[in-house]
Design brief:
homodimer; 10 helices; 78% helix; 0% strand; globular
Amino acid sequence: MSDPAALTDLLGLVAYGELVAFDRMAADARLAPDLTRRALLSEMAAREITHYRRLADRLTELGMRPEEAMRPYVTALQSYHDSTQPKDWLEALTKAYVGDAVADDFLREIAGQLAEPDRQLVLDVLHDSRYDEFAGREIRAAIVADPRLANRLSMWARRLVGEALSHAGRVAAERAALTTLLVAPTGDPGAAQALFKRLTAAHTGRMAAVGLNN
Amino acid sequence: MSDPAALTDLLGLVAYGELVAFDRMAADARLAPDLTRRALLSEMAAREITHYRRLADRLTELGMRPEEAMRPYVTALQSYHDSTQPKDWLEALTKAYVGDAVADDFLREIAGQLAEPDRQLVLDVLHDSRYDEFAGREIRAAIVADPRLANRLSMWARRLVGEALSHAGRVAAERAALTTLLVAPTGDPGAAQALFKRLTAAHTGRMAAVGLNN
């Protein structure tokens, strides 16, 4: 990747994403039905902060203040989360299950276009798959116990994706350098569309895996 | 210390204290005036969870489910925090500065009466002094910039101590085994009173050090 602005744009976005993920998971831990689950979610939240630290250190190394690199994303990410506040434990898990996985897929695609050490850094800070597995298991078990939940949680998941796309679109429009990462390999604008298709297919598969419909 | 019930009572209290401290600091991070401070507080919150994990592992080793050991304290600690919700960044810092230090002084006293490895474990999970220093610095600077703040924050600190004592008294009354730790060394009920005096003197000194009056 040739554009250093695109790199700091990306690292700033991921760093702020970690900070917000920490905040959200810490708040969601309060919704846990018992202390064991609450502690588990709190521990997962804490891991996001370790990731944040690595990204912030890398930004500093690149001569960029982490605060400055993150600032462009504050409004979009905060308003995504404000507009999708889970109202119970299962909505919180569904949001994490659906949202984190899409974000991770996206980062995995982007990472392929970065040079080292940033490629490995971005791959390292992807969400712990243990959390996805835990969330998936809880959602599946809840739907088995009460099949009517499938409908409510599927609607919730669709709303999450809709809100995420709308906010992501706004960020992309504002951060031109970042957007070049998506079309960089071939310069072909169709590349972004192909990426979008892959992300959607993976998302659909994940929904089905826990008993949610798209 | 001869009473194993007192030990698991104590570890359960400290473990739950860590979980709640995590939750509170994570929520307070939202009140931070900028992203650098927000990240700093989030990182400090994450450290509490590392402590929680050590305590939970030790409880498991002692044959006690962490969840069970923590349960007796849920109501008291939660209602302390619910009744003392900071409404801005300086109130959050004052709460941490005042409350964490009193809790740490108390644990340091108690630790002296534990056998190893629990003595060291309790000493290890005391709050990071870096956080106290950070909070103290911020409070002092704010009061220098606006001396009228001293009055509001002093009143807030007194309220915190009052609420903490009232909730702690209720816990002590309910957990007889835990209370024996306070009078164990000599069997003298005056020992608890002497401890209380030492804690109060240290608290008064800390208040003065940042420009708050008792």
